[in-house]
Amino acid sequence: MERRESDSGRRRSHFDVVIVGMGPVGAVCANLMGKYGVKTIVFEKEQEIYNGPRAVAVDAETTRFFGLIDLDDWLDEHVSKTGYQVLTGPEGNGWPIVDLEEVPKEHGYSKISYFYQPTVEATLRKNVKKYPNVQVCLGYEVTDIVEGRNGLVHVKVKFIGGLNEEVYTCKYLLGCDGGKSTVRRRLRLRYDGKADVERWLVLDIHSKSKQLKDQWSKFTFVIAGKRPYLHTPLPGDYHRFELLLDDHEDAEDMTKLEKVESLLNSIDVDTSHVTFQRRIVYKFHSREVEQWNVGHTFLLGDAAHCLPPFRGQGSTGMCSGIRDVVNLCWKITLFLHGTTEPLSLPRIAEPAKPETEDRKSTTTTKQEIHLPQSGVDRLSDSYQVERSPHVALMTRHATSKPMENPTLSMSCISVVVV
What is the pLDDT of residue 231? Predict the structure, then answer.
């Protein structure tokens, strides 16, 4: 069920779960809650799917997770499975560190493949419509979050541009609303970390040129030379190029059409039959929220952590966000059904503070404990203790060895899948 604006004025309604944000992470979350039979409502401030790729890579584990909502085969058929090469210079002028004609498989799927985000989001939204227990509200923003003494979360929302406010209550609020999370800001939580010193020019293009498709058929990462860059081939005749900028180069100037055409021509890309979808300069961030929940409100995906897309994480932050969803949703479902007593999990060692060396890994001891039996604090422990050390390790790796310009440090090729 989907609606865009309510004519009913101020209303009150109760759901087991409220999800804020319906990007890929929120959409997977909504589908899982639909599959689990949990009464759920989703609020997304944008009325339309963003018409361009942001995330572009998906790993084998995430593809397998799509099987939980019966979309793994669909996803596997709508990705680019290409070769993979990391070079010290442009082809013909450098030597290959990695050169694979085919990426190995894991869990029955390619270890890494490439997708077009608008297509995946549209399919996730279409799929969630089959669940009568999930309601989707597009064009709504959250204006306030208050947790009552009875453990219920009170969520105020309004249609963007509208005057009427609606109030909902829920047992769990899940913030899947990205790096600029409204939920996180309402909770007044710090988003610890830093921005990368490097700036990357991201160019998303569309071209039906067979020559360009044949020439740029592999994922390519050139890590040295005058200007390091990478290329990602996407389904549907789309391509992404990312080029490292020098400190003195002006972001506004570097995104001008004549400038980006010149840059692509310099790496042997024929732009005569190219349409630019997006030209933008990014500074990538490595951050983690100070705590992953406050009471019955939980943060997932970029709302809780963000990572550079090609350092420290096997594919993209989206994959890490979907891992958050898969980790938390089934536990919430069991709590709602009151059936946690028979379950036990290996005990995960309590993580140390982010700045300590102890968070390099998550260790499993022989002792077993029951899955949290009661109280949101125990659910929080189970979620954060399992997810936070993994994120902290990737964040440390992404920031511990800054890349040097013009030659990138070897830490930048941590995405290699051999």
Answer: 95
Encode pLDDT of 273-327 as tens digits. 999 999 999 888 888 999 999 999 999 999 999 877 754 344 568 999 999 999 9
Spatial contact of 394 and 320, defined as CB atoms under 8 Å apart? yes
Q: d(Cα 272, Cα 265) in Å, to the nearest integer?
A: 10
Q: Check if the beta carbon of residue 155 is closer than 8 Å to that of residue 172.
A: no
Closest Cα to residue 141, out of 54, 274, 44, 38?
Answer: 44
CA–CA separation, 363 and 393 (whole Å): 13
For residue 341 the two structure tokens come to 């007593």
Helices (H), 17-68: 24-36, 60-66
- Across the chain, which has 418 residues, the per-10-residue mean pLDDT values are 49 88 97 97 95 88 95 95 85 76 89 94 97 96 93 94 91 96 96 85 95 93 88 95 94 97 94 95 88 94 84 64 94 83 38 32 34 59 73 50 41 38
Distance linking the first and last C-alpha atoms of the chain:
44
Q: How many helices (H) and strands (E) does the chain have?
A: 10, 25
Q: Which helix (H) or strand (E) holds 182?
A: helix 182-186
Q: Give the residue from 212, 214, 22 showing the smallest Cα distance to 121.
A: 22
Cis peptide before 118 (omega within 30 of 0): no
Residue-wise DSSP of 266-323: HTT---TT-EEEEEEEE--EEEEES-SEETTEEE-GGGTEE--TTSSSSS-HHHHHHH
CA dist 363 → 321, 347, 350, 390, 398 (Å):
21, 9, 9, 11, 21
Q: Residue 272: which residues within 8 A CB-CB, separation 6 or more?
A: none
Residue 55 CB contacts under 8 Å (≥ 6 apart), including other chains: 24, 115, 117, 309, 316, 317, 318
The pTM of this model reads: 0.83
